[in-house]
Amino acid sequence: MKNSILRFPLAEVVLPFLVAAAMLTLSACNTSASSNPEQTVAYTDDYQHTVQVPVNPTRIVSTSPAVTEIIYALKAENLLIGRTDYCIYPPEAQSVPSIGGISNLNVEKIVSLNPDLVISGSMIPQKSSLQLEQMGVPIVCVIEKHRFDGLYENISKIGQLVGRTHEADSLVGLMKSQLQSLTQQLADSDTCRPSVYYVVGFGPSGNFTAGGNSFINDLINMAGGRNIAADITGWSYSLEALMQANPDYIIIRREDSAAFCRTNPYNRLDAVKQGRVIGLESGTIDLQVPRNLQAIRLLSQRLKPTPHQDR
Predict the structure, then answer these.
(1) Is-contact 115 60, C-beta < 8 A?
(2) Taking Cα atoms as reference points, which of 207, 268, 209, 269 lies closest to residue 239?
(3) I need a surface site. Which of 49, 83, 205, 282 has the fewest CB within 10 A?
(4) What pLDDT does 268 receive?
(5) Is residue 124 pLDDT above 90, yes or no?
(6) How big is the CA angle at 263 (ends 258 and 269), to the nearest 5 degrees?
(7) Are 60 and 117 in contact (CB under 8 A)?
(8) Is 0.90 surpassed by the pTM of this model?
C-alpha cells in the first residue's frame, strides 16, 4: 500500500497487562492438567479481558503478523493452523492457510479450522472478536507496546500461551545480550547523533511518522540516531516541520523508497539528494518482533555524523 499509513498494526494506548497474575495462574496447573489438551485456565489479556484458554493448545490461529513471527521464533509453528494475508514472515508462514485480512476477518473460515485458541493483535474489530467468543472460540489479544522493552513482554506472553515458556526465556535472554553488546559499542564510539525521520506514510493523504511515545523511536535511539519527531505523540507530522528539519537520514520501507525519493517536495530534502535514504525490509522496524535487532544493527552501521549537523 503506497503513500498511506502502515498496513501493519502499530502501538496503541492500552491498559497494563497483569503478567505476574497470569504467570502464577499458569504455573498453578499440575502435571495431570498439563497433559490434558482440553484443560483450560483463566488468562487476562492486554485489554483486561479474562478468557479461558487451553493449557496446551494444539490448533492456533494468529490474526497478527507480529504474533505469527514470534510463534515461529519460539519454534511453535507446528501449532499454527491459520494466519492472515499479512502474516508473510518467515516465508514458510505463507504455506499456512489464510483466514483473510486483519480488519475484515473471515470469522466463518476461522471457525471452520476448529482452533482451540486465537491470538490477535490491536487491529482486530471488536465485532469479529465478539463473534468468535459467541461461537465458543477463545481469543486473546497481545498488542504492540510503546517501549522497545515491551517486545520482551510480548514474547513471554506468547510463550506462555503456546506452551513455550523455556524457549521464550531463552530468546529474551539472547536478545538482551546481543542488544547490550551492540549498544555498548555505540556508546564507546558515537559522540554525535545524526537526525532521522522515519516514514510511516506520505503524500496527499498526509505525512505520518513515529513519535516519541513509540518503540520505533526507541529503535532509532538505540541505533545511534535522533528522531526529529521525538517531541510528538501519535503519528501525524506536518510537511512544513519535515522540510524545515531537513533530517540527515530518511528511514522508510524498502518498497516505498523509490516513490518517496521521486515525489515532490520530498526529493528536495538533503537526505534524498545525497543518497541518505535507508530502505528497510518491511516488518523489521514497523512490527515489534525479534527482527528489530536486525534493524538496530543495520541502522547503527548506516547512521553516521554528517558535516552539517549543527544547522
Answers:
(1) yes
(2) 207
(3) 205
(4) 98
(5) no
(6) 90
(7) yes
(8) no
